[in-house]
Structure formats: structure tokens, C-alpha cells
Amino acid sequence: MKVLSVNRALAVDVHVNGRKLRSAIGKRAVPGPVAVRGLGLEGDEQADLSLHGGTSKAVYAYPHEHFAFWQTVRAQARVSLWDEPLAPGTMGENLTIQGLSEDRLWIGDRLLIGGNDGAPGCVLAVSEPRFPCSKFTAIIGFKHAAKMMVQSGYCGAYLGVLVPGFVQAGDAIELQPGPREVNLRELFKSRARA
């Protein structure tokens, strides 16, 4: 289990369904250690704090294993080529991770990340699933993207910051189980049906 990419963005104006909105969904990979603070990554913003950000949604992690699914459905929707890979950050995630899908994560699990090269690592806690918004649909490029996220359960995880520190691509992730009462994917599916 590891961090493949650390991604961030500043909020900019985007056009979604003919409306001008502020968004920082267009995350891009950044090199080197990045500071993780109580409200997220240094140099990253969230434009709509009613949906993203805050202490319980400070960092968004998304499994790289789901990228092939999104590459396929985007090609089927004819918004990209079949062999056009998705760049890290495309899902709006701060951390593109490997080896930790939603079915392996439970609310309250802790992710101990980094601590390499002399920079102190950080401890993040799984807080809730991410629900797709209109900006997600616009970035993915077809109108059924949100519905596809709900059907697949490929939602990723919001994380709160328990111990600030630094994170960088290549950092190992150690999973420290929490109470194991509420599974992330099951919670997502349950809330999506409501």
C-alpha cells in the first residue's frame, strides 16, 4: 500500500452546465514532500466548503485501481480515446493511492503515511465516502458519471488529519484498523440509496 501521487490545485472559475463556478477539482501531481495541515495539503484549496474540506474532509484519497474503469467508461461515452490514461488528480483526489480500495476501509481506520527522507509522516483517519457533484461529472466528461460512481461504489475516501506532517509520492501507507463497525463502501451505497 502506497501513495502513487500527491495532487493539489487552487480554486479557479470553471463552466459547468452553462454556469460559472469556482472549483479546485483540477488537481495536478506535485513533486517532493508536501505539508499536510489540519485542513488539508499546503497549496491546495476547496472552493465549496459545504461539500468539500473542513476537518473531516481535509484530504481526499482515491484508489488508482479504479482508473482503468473510468478510462473504459469515458471511452465508451466517446469523451476520450480507449488508450488515453487518466492523470493522477483527475478524480479531484489529493492522494492517488494503491492497494486500499473502499471495501478495505472502515470509518475510523487510520492511515500512517510517510516518514521517509527525514520528513515526518502524517496520520490520517478515514471519515466518510465522497459523493459525486456536478463538477465531478463535468471533469469526467459525460452526464452519467455521477451515476456510474454510485453504481460502481468507486467513491474514494475523505480523510481527517490526526497528526500533521508531510506526504510524497512513493510513501508507504500503513493501515491501522479502527473500530471496524462501518465499512466505507457500504456506507456510500447506503447513503446513495437514501
Note down, in words, how this protein is organized.
With 194 residues, the chain is an alpha+beta fold. It is 18% helix and 31% strand. It has a single domain (2-193), classed as PK beta-barrel domain-like (M1 Pyruvate Kinase, Domain 3). It is globular and about 45 Å long. The model has no long low-confidence stretch (mean pLDDT 92).
Q: Helix/strand/pairing class, anyone?
A: alpha+beta
Low-pLDDT windows of residues: none
CATH arch. level architecture: Beta Barrel
Number of domains: 1
So how many helices?
A: 4
Radius of gyration, taken over Cα atoms and rounded to an integer in Å: 16 Å
Number of strands: 13
User: Based on the structure, what is the oligomeric state of the protein chains?
Assistant: single chain
Which CATH top level class fits? Mainly Beta
Main beta sheet strand tally, sense and closure: 8 strands, mixed
**Physical arrangement of strands within the biggest beta sheet:** 4-1-8-7-11-10-9-13
Query: What is the helix/strand order?
Result: EEEEEEEHEEEHHEEEH
- Helix percentage range: 10-25%
Q: pLDDT average, as an integer?
A: 92
End-to-end Cα distance, whole Å, is 32 Å
Shape: globular
Strand content: 25-35%
The name of the CATH superfamily reads PK beta-barrel domain-like
CATH fold type: M1 Pyruvate Kinase, Domain 3
Which tags fit this structure?
single chain; 194 residues; alpha+beta; M1 Pyruvate Kinase, Domain 3; 8-stranded mixed β-sheet; 3-stranded antiparallel β-sheet; 4 helices; 31% strand; globular
